[in-house]
Amino acid sequence: MHWCLPFRFLLTLLSSILALGDSGFAQLDGAPPSKIAIVGAGIGGTATAHFLRQHFGPEVHIDVFEKGTVGGRLATVTVNHQDYESGGSIIHSLNLHMQDFVKQLGLKYRKNVAGKTAVFNGEEFILEETDWYLLDLFRLWWRYGISFIRLQMWVEEIMEKFMRIYKYQGHGYAFSSVEELLHSLGGSGFLNMTHRSLSESLLELGVSQRFIDEVIAPVMRVNYGQNISIPAFVGAVSLAGAQANLWAVEGGNKLVCSGLLKLAKANLIQAQVTTISPHAAGESTQYQLNYATLTEKGSEFYDIVVVATPLQSSVGSGISFQGFEPQLPDIAGSYHHTVASIVHGYLNCSYFGFPDPKLFPFASVLTTDSPGLFFNSAASICPVNISTGFRRKQPQEAGVYKVFSPQPLDKPALKTLFRSYYSVQVTDWQAYPHYGSTQDLPPVVLHDSLYYLNGIEWAGSAMEMSSVAAKNIALLAYHRWSRQLEMVDQKDLMHKIKTEL
């Protein structure tokens, strides 16, 4: 998921820059499934419901279980009767699934309110965006040489290859593992990028250490709360999301999730799924889901189940898998805590070297990976509904700020960043995986017709990555059920698609 603030001056850098699976276990008469369950109603779960409806048609019954609120890590908080994004806040212009959702749902793009960005190292600003594009370009060249051009070309090449997924999915092809998906897009290069660190890859490209420390590290800190040792593929996803061509949904990004549930005509069950267990049903397998609401317990049988919530033990999904022979493997890894504090108050511009707040020109402050820096970013944010004539609050006025930090902000930290404040609303997100450079990617197929969506996050966490995984699982489930295995894990897809045309 992207948590990136609109890091517009990186425009000069970047835009000038799913395992088992040999059979589908369909019913022998070719009948469609009667009931499908999805566990989780975030962007991944709701998009899966939508795509499953598209592929299996109007007759199948789709239940979506959600123990919390629809939207998951897309969420808002209210300050002074206005809502602000507290979770995933921006979407890239190349996110074709998200764009299509917005169009189908009749939602609107939120107006973009301009604001300059700077990078702070704990003592001073080392990089500042100006009103002059050419001046920004010159400053980058003067300080970093051609590092930003090398970075631009690298990110563009990766994005160009990643965009192939839309063509593959448009032709109905699916993948039984995240590794197969990545390999189809970028060969062994993409797979290697999930095991090599970002810093190692960029240094090999000829990007300077100074540029990595002063530009790349701040972007990683604001997007994933982690440093430049994260895998190169995650880093590339993050850098693609640091461009100027970003957007959001008017009224809040979570509206996409609630809209997709309605579009899919899915039945929302507000409950905690407690156990999932397999039961033989003739030639196929059904799954029994036991669940608990606030007032009662229930149990249902399903032909297909998609788990669209993290299964790592550190997250505490509350789901127990029982009766599987052999036992399902544990999903390794942990999720990274990032604290989002929405503060209504007066920014302490003196801390940043501006005693007069009227002279403070920045809407967003990113930080380097420096000892003693207690926050990853701080930004003046706009509400999810932007009226005509809206203007961003000036630093001398009381504004609403989003601060990302590894730990909750204590009073001394708040007093450092703010002269005074009216309210602080804290969300401690297990927002995205804690990335190491060597872990294996989780499986997509857990059992015959039991699928796991969130493994995609270990390749890269963003709304669109979840949407791509949702489409892939819907296609995979459909093809395995229908025994159309020629549509799964095909090699040389670019050539195949060209010959199909």
Automatic annotation (TrEMBL):
<protein>
    <submittedName>
        <fullName>Prenylcysteine oxidase-like isoform X1</fullName>
    </submittedName>
</protein>
<feature type="signal peptide">
    <location>
        <begin position="1"/>
        <end position="19"/>
    </location>
</feature>
<dbReference type="GO" id="GO:0001735">
    <property type="term" value="F:prenylcysteine oxidase activity"/>
</dbReference>
<dbReference type="Pfam" id="PF07156">
    <property type="entry name" value="Prenylcys_lyase"/>
</dbReference>
<dbReference type="Pfam" id="PF13450">
    <property type="entry name" value="NAD_binding_8"/>
</dbReference>
<dbReference type="GO" id="GO:0030327">
    <property type="term" value="P:prenylated protein catabolic process"/>
</dbReference>
<comment type="similarity">
    <text>Belongs to the prenylcysteine oxidase family.</text>
</comment>
<feature type="domain" description="Prenylcysteine lyase">
    <location>
        <begin position="127"/>
        <end position="490"/>
    </location>
</feature>
<keyword id="KW-0560">Oxidoreductase</keyword>
<dbReference type="GO" id="GO:0030328">
    <property type="term" value="P:prenylcysteine catabolic process"/>
</dbReference>
<dbReference type="InterPro" id="IPR017046">
    <property type="entry name" value="Prenylcysteine_Oxase1"/>
</dbReference>
<dbReference type="InterPro" id="IPR036188">
    <property type="entry name" value="FAD/NAD-bd_sf"/>
</dbReference>
<dbReference type="InterPro" id="IPR010795">
    <property type="entry name" value="Prenylcys_lyase"/>
</dbReference>
<keyword id="KW-0732">Signal</keyword>
<keyword id="KW-0325">Glycoprotein</keyword>
<keyword id="KW-0285">Flavoprotein</keyword>
<keyword id="KW-0274">FAD</keyword>
